[in-house]
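Board notes (copied after class):
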Amino acid sequence: MKYPSIIQNLIDQFAKLPSIGPKSAERLVFHLLYRPQNELHEFSQAIDYLKGSVKQCQICFNFSESNPCYICNNIKRNKTIICVVAKPQDMAILEKTGSFDGTYHILGGNINPLENISPQQIKIKELVERIKNNGVKEIILALNPDMAGETTSIYLTKLIKQFPNIKITRLARGLPMGADLEYADEITLENALKDRREL
């Protein structure tokens, strides 16, 4: 069946989102068609404000309403410890444990030759600059225990070892191989943070 072009266009837009196939996109569009106009207005406004109101922190590359973000701006955070994560969602889930008082560095992805993602395409150079200029004592590598995460961890370990006074640790192996930080429970993550080990 051919839908009107307005409906088909929105289905196509939803289908561009990660994990949304054509069938899921179709369901979403028809769900929206049955919602009241004021809900649709709120929904479109939230999308419209997303890019205009959210900034990227110049220090850690988190998304925030302020720059620097609320974590980098917090004087109670330990600026000598940086926890390196691949994406903002990983930082958010670690924050929920309430067991880390340092700062973060969001790479914006992992090194992944299969997807043509090289070290130059993620925020590694910026991490090195932070290490050089900010009295950093420890780097925690909190990357997913999959191939891309391991590749990135190995690369970063070699790079950071040129700074002999920096301790390099990683999350303990409470996280199973192939797990995604975003879906790990808070107790597992809390234990992984507490039991991190030096590389």
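Comment from the instructor: The chain has a mean pLDDT of 89. The longest strand covers residues 78-85.
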